[in-house]
Amino acid sequence: MASTEAPRWTAYANERLAGEGYRRGGGRAAVIDLLDAQECALSAQEIEDRLREGERRVGRATVYRVLDELVELHLLSKVEIGDGVARFERVFPEGTHHHHHFVCRDCGRLIPFEDDELERVLRRIARREGVAMDGHDVTLRGRCPDCAPAAG
Ligand SMILES: [Zn+2]
Ligand SMILES: [Zn+2]
């Protein structure tokens, strides 16, 4: 389940925000930097907690407002894993970095994975069904290596 290093998302996000007329804000920059340092999705609560641990103080209202803005601009996607908590994940330019998740039903851990062949298969299915696919969600469920009973 190795995943390759993702490209930097901050520059892409800032460019999009500037293009949409957003001014550079301290709170927004802190949220963007934090998310760009993650391999995978974080909940709003986790984002708030991690910002509080760091040097940069960002109020809860600002965190939520920034997350809404970034989702609206399709710079973040909401990852729903069925526990009622939305997690936020960077969205990269079309055709660049993109991954899916394995969710552990015991500990709730989210493990990212990517697979070019899976992407090709999904595109082939979309063509076959004659649909214009502009996104997809694939979530694997089960038990992670820590929670799975030892083999043998
Ligand atoms: Zn992820
Ligand atoms: Zn687990």
Automatic annotation (TrEMBL):
SUPFAM superfamilies noted in UniProt: Winged helix' DNA-binding domain
CDD domains: Fur_like
Keyword Transcription regulation in record: yes
InterPro entries registered for this protein in UniProt: FUR, Fur_C, WH-like_DNA-bd_sf, WH_DNA-bd_sf
GO MF annotation, one: DNA-binding transcription factor activity
Cofactor binding, note field: Binds 1 Mn(2+) or Fe(2+) ion per subunit. Binds 1 zinc ion per subunit.
Cofactor entry: Mn(2+); Fe(2+); Zn(2+)
Annotated positions binding Zn(2+): C104, C107, C144, C147
Transmembrane segments: none
Biological processes annotated in GO: negative regulation of DNA-templated transcription; regulation of secondary metabolite biosynthetic process
Keywords: DNA-binding, Iron, Metal-binding, Repressor, Transcription, Transcription regulation, Zinc
Binding site for Fe cation: H98, E119, H136
Family assignment from sequence similarity: Belongs to the Fur family.
PANTHER family: FERRIC UPTAKE REGULATION PROTEIN, ZINC UPTAKE REGULATION PROTEIN
Protein name: Fur family ferric uptake transcriptional regulator
Classification of source organism: Bacteria, Bacillati, Actinomycetota, Thermoleophilia, Solirubrobacterales
